[in-house]
Structure formats: C-alpha cells, structure tokens
Amino acid sequence: MTRIALVVRGGWDGHHPVEATELFVPFLRAQGFDVAIETDPQVYADADRLAATDLIVQCVTMSEISKEAVRGLRDAVAAGTGLAGWHGGIADSYRASSDYLQLVGGQFATHPSKHPDEVHGDQTDNYLDYTVELTDLGRSHEIMAGIDDFTLHTEQYWVLHDDLNDVLATTTHPVQPYHPWHRPIVSPAVWTRDWGRGRVFVATPGHSPDVLQDANVRTIIERGMLWAARTR
Question: Where are the beta strands (DSSP E) in 52-137?
Fold first, then answer.
C-alpha cells in the first residue's frame, strides 16, 4: 500500500520553506510515499485527510494556527500519524499555542550570537562553530546509526524542552563574557517523542539549504522522517 506524506510549508521566508522541503520530496517519493504539499496549516483541521496521512513534514516558522488546526494535528498524531521537521520549521512554529508546543516537546528560545565586535546586522551574526554530540541513547538508535559527533557552522539553537523527549543528540552553549548566562547550557539537537500511537521527530540544525545538505544532517532528517511515519 502506498503511504501518504503531507508537506506543510510556509511562514518566515528566511528559512526557505519551499527550497528546504523540496530537498526531501524526491527522497520521500523514492521511499514509496505519495507526497502532497500544502501552504496553510489549517489543513490540520481536516480529520479525514489526516487520518489517511502517514507522515506530516512541517516547515512553517513562526506564523499562527487556529485552535481547530492544533486540535486536529494533536489528534492525528495521537492516532498514529507521524510528525517530523527541522529547525524553526517545527521548533519555532505557532509560538502562541501551548498545545502545539506540548506536542512537539521543544521551543526555540534563542541562537546566541558572535562576539559583539564581530556582528554586522545580518543572519551571519548568529552563525557559530558548534558540535552536535550524540547521547548514549543516540548511539544505539537507528536514526543515528553510523554517525558520530560532528561540527556545523550555523545557528546553534537553544531549546526549551521537557523530559518526555528521547534525546538522541545535544549541543552545549558555552559561557561567554558577552552573554548573561553563568554556566554551560546543554540543549537537545535531535530528539524523538512518542505521542499516543504516533511519533514525533525533531532536528534543530537546518537553518538554510546548505546546512540541510550536510551529509550528517541530511541523513538524520531522512531517517527521522521514516522513523516517524506510520507503518501500515
């Protein structure tokens, strides 16, 4: 039976929602998914459509969502529809909806900047060299198989999160004299989350298409989508 994937994309253009998701559409089709694309999260209020959907891939940064759509998304995942995404497209979506934040399990708080003497007023002010470190759980998980700790030069997400997440990789924000925190902060970088009969997958790297094409990042996201998808 052909599985159904629904790509929901939009929101802030700085995360290139069209270009970013188009990187993964051919992969999903090659894996046997029939892929549909929507640009309005109100599609989540269509219970019949979501019940027939095996995987939702969301790339909608910030934006707004109706209570009916959030309820539909939560109900669908609880019933077995998978939810997957990366960076702000899933971890910085619908900031005003606590019900959405609970479903996903992590909310973007900030991406620390460079030294004040090195900032220029554009997105690169927040591009840092940082390491994604696998947890013990991550080293034994199918999503991370064959992947070791790796470094990136991009936004390093600081994520507010809870203990329902199964964290597969973390990143540590160091103490800097120009930042106000006083000890290193460990933040999840890749996690999974069980929600009813459904699965949620989140990777925080993915600010721009070049990051998504990093071999480690792309492999993790591809595997994460397959892991999250309902198995019929």
Answer: 55-61, 82-86, 106-110, 127-134
CA 221 – CA 133 distance, rounded (Å):
16
48: helix, coil or strand? helix
Order of strands across the sheet that contains 150-155: 33-38, 3-11, 55-61, 82-86, 198-203, 185-195, 166-173, 127-134, 150-155
pLDDT of the chain, 232 residues: tens digit per residue = 799 999 999 999 999 999 999 999 999 999 999 999 999 999 999 999 999 999 999 999 999 999 999 999 999 999 999 999 999 999 999 999 999 999 999 999 999 999 999 999 999 999 999 999 999 999 999 999 999 999 999 999 999 999 999 999 999 999 999 999 999 999 999 999 999 999 999 999 999 999 999 999 999 999 999 999 997 5
Burial class (CB in 10 A: 0-12, 13-18, 19+), 227: middle
